[in-house]
Design goal:
With about 210 residues, the protein is α+β, with helices and mostly antiparallel strands. It is built from 6 helices and 9 strands. It has helices at about 15-25, 40-60, 120-130, 135-140, 150-165, 175-180, and strands at about 10, 30-35, 65-70, 80, 85-95, 95-100, 105-115, 185-190, 195-200.
């Protein structure tokens, strides 16, 4: 397996064949499950788990019996295949689910629907000031009000992906959170323009 951990700046959610190629090349892949009709949370989770197991089987060329899925409430799922770990992360939003697989280390993914009517400019700015890096909040404050929701969505997806990658829950901004940003590689995941999505992985020590 290649040791390369650096990610391209953008990636498109992959079908299964593309996902296998991505896993072979970078050790990480993103699968997308779009829905025509809005699924229940339970249905979205079930289908995401099925896609995760199918992708793992295809990559390792193994049977379902060789794949064990381990889930703990509040923690990212981990699979074991013949003694080897596969790290995973799920995110569900509106009509889209994203599944990240990583055969090298922990991974986090988050997707946000940018056309959410709850994203009011004032509330976006307040959430940014409470939870996001201070420079991000300052940049958002300088934007025109109508531009804030989209900027907030992209920054929030990145923040959530980083927290998931490190196994951290959502909390108000703290200096310790800044360290997570320095030890994480993030890539935007190219989706429908109505969404913002980010995949996060641990930064190798050899990278600046």
């Amino acid at each position: 397996m290649p040791a390369e951990r650096a990610l391209a700046s953008r990636s498109r959610p992959a079908d299964l064949d593309q996902a296998i190629a991505d896993l072979q090349h970078t050790g990480c892949a993103v699968l997308a499950l779009p829905y025509r009709t809005l699924p229940s949370r339970e249905v979205a989770r079930s289908r995401a788990r099925e896609a995760l197991i199918q992708g793992t089987q295809a990559f390792f060329q193994c049977d379902a019996a060789d794949v064990a899925l381990h889930t703990v409430p509040g923690q990212a799922p981990v699979l074991t295949v013949r003694g080897r770990k596969v790290f995973a992360s799920f995110s569900h939003e509106s009509h889209l689910s994203l599944i990240a697989l990583d055969v090298q280390g922990p991974v986090g993914i988050d997707v946000l629907h940018l056309e959410n009517p709850d994203f009011l400019p004032g509330e976006c700015l307040q959430l940014a000031q409470d939870y996001l890096p201070p420079d991000t909040a300052s940049q958002m404050a300088a934007l025109a009000a109508q531009a804030r929701p989209a900027a907030f969505g992209r920054a929030w997806a990145r923040h959530e992906a980083i927290l998931k990658c490190h196994g951290r829950g959502l909390e108000e901004w703290h200096e310790s959170t800044q360290a997570l940003y320095h030890t994480t590689l993030c890539q935007e995941v190219e989706t429908d323009t109505a969404y913002a999505a980010v995949c996060a992985r641990h930064r190798p020590l050899s990278l600046p």
